[in-house]
Amino acid sequence: MSVKMIVLLVCVSLGGWLGWVVGTPGGIMGSYLAGVVGSSAGLYIGRRLQGNLDGD
């Protein structure tokens, strides 16, 4: 696994976890939806970080 893929995996995981925690007051569905939004934000941030890494 390359460093770029690890960065992306960590960002998506952290974003999903953070979204889940933030959505907890809204119940299970609120947590799920906030987790999806958090994962999407993590994907965006991870892609931006990948672009800043050496090689590309």
Main features:
56 residues; elongated; 0% strand; mainly alpha; single chain; 2 helices
Summarize the structure.
By secondary structure, the protein is an all-alpha fold. Helix content is 82%, strand content 0%.
> Which structural class matches the secondary elements?
mainly alpha
Helical content, roughly? over 70%
- Oligomerization state of this entry? single chain
Number of helices: 2
Shape: elongated
Give unreliable regions as ranges.
none
Secondary structure tally: strands:
0
Describe this entry's structure for a reader.
The protein has helices spanning 3-22, 27-52. With 56 residues, the chain is mainly α. The protein has one domain (3-51). Helix 1 packs antiparallel against helix 2 (27-52). The longest helix has 26 residues, at 27-52. The two termini are 17 Å apart.
Write the layout of secondary structure elements.
Blueprint: H1 3-22, H2 27-52
